[in-house]
Amino acid sequence: MSMKLRDLEYLVAVAEERHFHKAAARCHVSQPTLSGQLKKLEDELGVLLVERTNRQVTMTEVGLAVTEQARKVLCEAKVISEISQAYQDPMKGDLHIGIIPTIAPYLLPIIMPALNKTFTKMKFWLYEYQTHILLDKLKHGELDCLILALPIEKHDFVEIDLFREPFRLAVERGNLLAKKKEITLGDIANQEMLLLEEGHCLRGHVLDVCHLVGTKGTSQFQATSLETLRHMIGEGVGMTLMPELAVPDKTSKRDLIQYLPFSDPKPNRRIGMLYRKNSYREDAFENINEVIRAALPINIFF
User: Fold this and answer.
1) Is residue 300 domain-resident?
2) Residue 77: which CATH number?
3) Residue 21 within any structural domain of the chain
4) Domain count, the chain
């Protein structure tokens, strides 16, 4: 049997994308190449893995079972590569990092220059997904580590704390609260908060604060991103809690939004790193953690 790891990668891509063209693009090969290699794999195994029609791709029952095992094989093969890499130089080679959307656009410009300057032999690949997708990709070895909001319930990974990020209240400049230099949690009691859509962990953090002070999250509108929330608030539609890193460094009197700091106790979220237990790149993650913490602005605490 001459089964290749690359063929297993093709199979997993087709199973996840349910589309030959998308799977081929993901694997950086032509569609005929991918289809041909999958047919060879089926002939070698003597079973039909994928049902092919003009409109859709359907995995057979045996195809699903083989795909699940293929994920495990690919993950273990990655571990072998990690062992040899760590033995040679743990701070050399490719590192695939997943990061949630409410952190990525604001944290990466701060930390990536420092990481690239410090670890010149390492190439960082960055992926932005919601938490549940990141966890699945980490589990199956598609990503090496994650940067996301903690805690994560019921997981089997190692956690490293990075920092705690305070929230500010984002309100339209004409709002009465905007005249305050600092606000308390009591100031937002009985207010209505704009929220992100389901799947964003920040939504849960904002709702936790809402429940604490008797504030409600609006059910009339759910944003896909923090930037959408920002535009809504600028139009005078509601208010929300904005993570500190997403707050502009400078504001002027012409800005439509005021970002108000809270007095103690400040509502905040805990940001950390996740990686698989017994990873042979543990030393690399610890070193990266130190560089990230050193690069953070002083308004972020630990």
Assistant:
1) no
2) 1.10.10.10
3) yes
4) 3
Question: Whose CA is closest to 274, among 165, 93, 164, 143?
Answer: 143
Do 233 and 246 belong together in one domain? yes
Residue 177: give its domain's CATH number: 3.40.190.10
Q: How many CB atoms lie within 10 A of CB 214?
A: 12
> What are 143's two structure tokens?
């990503």
Of 101, 106, 61, nearest in space to 248 by CA:
106
**Shared domain check, 113 and 247:** no
Peptide bond connecting 151 to the previous residue in cis, omega within 30 degrees of 0 = yes
Amino acid sitting at position 84 = S
pTM of the predicted model, to two decimals? 0.75
Q: Which of 22, 53, 84 is the last residue of a domain?
A: 84
| Length of the chain as a residue count | 302
Q: 255 is written with which tokens? A: 């800005």
Range of the domain at 109: 90-162+271-295
Strand partners, 196: 223
* Predicted local distance difference test score (pLDDT) of residue 220: 73
How far is C-alpha 172 from the chain's CA centre?
Answer: 29
pLDDT tens, 265-291? 899 999 999 999 888 788 899 999 999
pLDDT in tens, 205-232: 888 888 888 777 776 778 889 999 999 9
Exposure class string for 41-50: b at 16+ Cβ within 10 A, else e: bbeeeeeebb
Same domain, 234 and 147: no
Dist. CA 151–CA 297, nearest whole Å: 23
